[in-house]
Amino acid sequence: MESKLLSNEVQNFITENIPTSVAKLALQKNPFPDIEWSTILKQIEAKAKAKQKLPSWFATDKIIYPSKISIEQTSSESTAKYKSSLISGKNLIDLTGGFGVDDYYFSKKMNTIAHCEINPELAAIVKHNFTKLQANNIICYTGDSATTLSSLNTKWDWIYIDPSRRNDAKGKVFMLQDCLPNVPENLNFYFKYSTSILVKTAPLLDITAGLTELNNVKTIHIIALDNEVKELLWELHKDYSGNTTIATVNLTKDKLEHFSFIMQAPIGNAKYSLPQKYLYEPNSAIMKSGGFDAVSQFYNIKKLHKHSHLYTSDSILDFPGRVFDIQTTFTYSKAPMQTYLKNTKSNVTTRNFPETVEKIRKKWDIKDGGTLYTFFTTDINNNKIVLICNKIK
Q1: In angstroms, rounded to a whole number, what is the distance separating the alpha carbons of residues 302 and 379?
Q2: If DSSP codes are grouped into helix, strand and coil, which group holds residue 6?
Q3: Are residues 131 and 87 both part of a single domain?
Q4: In the predicted model, is pLDDT for residue 275 greater than 80?
Q5: Residue 171 DSSP label
Q6: Where is the THUMP-like domain (predicted)?
Q7: Of 213, 242, 262, at which residue does a domain stop?
Q8: Residue-wise pLDDT tens digits, 11-56
Q9: CB 317, CB 296: distance < 8 Å
Q10: Which of 73, 195, 283, 384 falls between 20 and 30 A from 122, CA-CA?
Q11: 359 and 275 in one domain?
């Protein structure tokens, strides 16, 4: 570890210059000739990224950061903390340790965490940081994680894996077999050392495609943060052969929005209706899940159209998503558009509608923003309709 980089003078300089543009700093003279100027600039850039995403790291003295890209790709503290609520037991091995954010939170739930990282430079940084964070029950291993797993020859309560796409997989449809490590190929090997495996994937992975590659999937967790899906978690248990549960959560500042359903269970048909008093838009985790009929059944709420994925009711419900009070509804045509929306300001959304938001804005001169929310969609009678709403939540 670079001791000069950890000096108080250099660390203070890094923290003080977080608000400053790195491009602007790069033109200045390096005040610390004994350290590469690019190294200091990279620390400033990465620490700036960590301020919102990793507040515990940001607030801890003498943390060393990897590249800005590594910070961008790592779990946020919010998702890592939620992830730790899904596991229990005494020990866990992380085969793809990375920057170690997930392991830091796993360590608060278990006695022993093994962090495996193939990149020796990153492994050294993470080991140093865990000491600073006082995460003393995390043991760091450098090298190939499969070799570490077999050489330790330990029974683990959980194996955690966050496979990364191989460089030669760019442009292909996202498949787990195109990632490192190749989880589908190695499942039997992993199950020798644990009966429970948690696999993290990017939201890009299609759920149906993932289920064709993976066996023993008990639950698929879809995790959104502030209504943006961040990751999928595939919970695998050895010898499990039952139905798969889809568990969605949207983590917000104020609360957690949960919704779950069993994929293979008979759900029944959704109910449909023309727009009533209230409009509901599911959060992004539910949108990713595809459980639209399950939402209709569970909340006893009506859909506007099979493919619109918007819901309506006459009485207000506590719903996992955005809720609106419908002010005006009309068929999409020139006269009412000119009356209600031309040369106005509104937040525009399209669902199951042939025109894009950009085209609608340009065509009717609708500026972005304001307090109105306008939905362009299709109703149960296949009519193109417009709903002007006030947002309730």
Answers
A1: 11
A2: helix
A3: yes
A4: yes
A5: T
A6: 321-391
A7: 262
A8: 999 999 999 999 999 999 999 989 999 999 999 999 999 999 999 9
A9: no
A10: 195
A11: yes
Distances (CA, A) of 228 to 27, 225, 249, 287: 36, 5, 11, 10
Asked if 150 and 241 sit in the same domain, the reply is yes
CA–centroid distance for 137 within its chain = 27
Residue 230 sits in a domain of what CATH number? 3.40.50.150
Spatial CB neighbours of 86, under 8 Å, sequence gap ≥ 6 = 198, 221, 233, 235
In one-letter notation, the amino acid at residue 239 is D
> End of a domain among 20, 37, 72?
72
**Of 308, 303, 316, 258, residue with least CA distance to 283:** 258
Structure tokens that stand for 372 in this block: 């109105």
CA–CA distance, 152 with 139 (Å, rounded to integer): 12
CB count within 10 Å of CB 373 equals 21
Residue 229's alpha-carbon distances to 223, 244, 250, 252, in angstroms, are 6, 20, 8, 12
Give the model's pLDDT for residue 107: 98
% of the chain surpassing 70 pLDDT: 97
Q: How far apart are CA 285 and CA 249, in angstroms?
A: 6
Number of domains forming the structure of the chain: 3
Same domain for 198 and 102: yes
Specify the DSSP element, H or E, that contains 207. Answer: helix 207-213
223 is written with which tokens?
């995790």
> What tokens were used for 145?
């994680």
> Which amino acid, one-letter code, is at 7?
S
15: left (phi over 0), alpha (psi -120 to 50) or beta: alpha
Domain that holds residue 99: 75-262
- Reported confidence tier of residue 172, pLDDT bands at 50, 70, 90: low
Q: In DSSP terms, which residues pair with 237 in a beta bridge?
A: 196
What are the Cα distances from residue 196, in Å, to 100, 151, 348? 20, 19, 44
- Residue 72: the pLDDT is 83
Cα 221 from Cα 75, distance rounded (Å): 15
